Sequence to fold (265 residues):
Amino acid sequence: MTETATIGVFGGSGFYEFLDDVREIEVETPFGAPSDRIALATVAGRPVAFLPRHGKKHQHPAHAVNYRANIWAFRALGVREILAPCSCGSLQEDIHPGEFVVLDQFVDRTRGRHDTYFDGPETHHIGAAEPYCGRLRELVLEEGRRLGIPMRDSGTIVVINGPRFSTRAESAWFTREGWDVVTMSQYPEVMLARELGICYTGIALVTDYDTGISHGREPVSIEEVFRVFRLNVDKIQALIRETVPRMGADRHCSCEDEARKARLG
Fold:
């Protein structure tokens, strides 16, 4: 494969409509087809690969996304760092729609998703204590603050299976546990990237108050999620434009080394 990009971004057409030199390619993987064609573009002179996580028409709900194919396709193109925006619901009263949470922890509440490349005979025990790349998180935080984007420098995201939203009881439970936001993506995406030694940072845009803390508000709806997301696409675009030039120059993090050491045999 001649096409290469060292930086990958999960996001649909709204993420790269501001670019002029976009070309789309198909990438085959041993795990089947990715969610859609991958768009190759240049940002600040750097080649960047964009992949809509759910497909251009949102035809792949979160529980049915081929996460292994998506991450593998990025790796096949030479991607070593991934920016992964996602929408989420707030689980705490002081976390408001329109804010961004740069994630540092997740809680997996999914089921049935293929979440490893190593089903045997080769075994791979990757550490998950710090699942997100700390170096890449700091770059995103610095650029977000410089742009005046409301950013939270840490947060735990609960990943539910979907496609349904949480019940009030489930959402209230997540809130009582002290977790910050809830989504249907992020897992196993982040851990698959870690298995391959790819730096990954999750950038969660809060689109709503989850049902457990609605307190007189209307329960979350997909229409409201999309509405708030569209209102903030320009901020996500700006964050990508400003972060990309600072990526790749000095990968002093341990992501590659930890993936290498996790393999047995």
User: Anything to note?
Assistant: The first strand starts at residue 7 and ends at 10. The mean pLDDT is 91. The first helix runs from residue 13 to 16. Residues 7-264 form a domain with the Rossmann fold fold (CATH 3.40.50.1580).
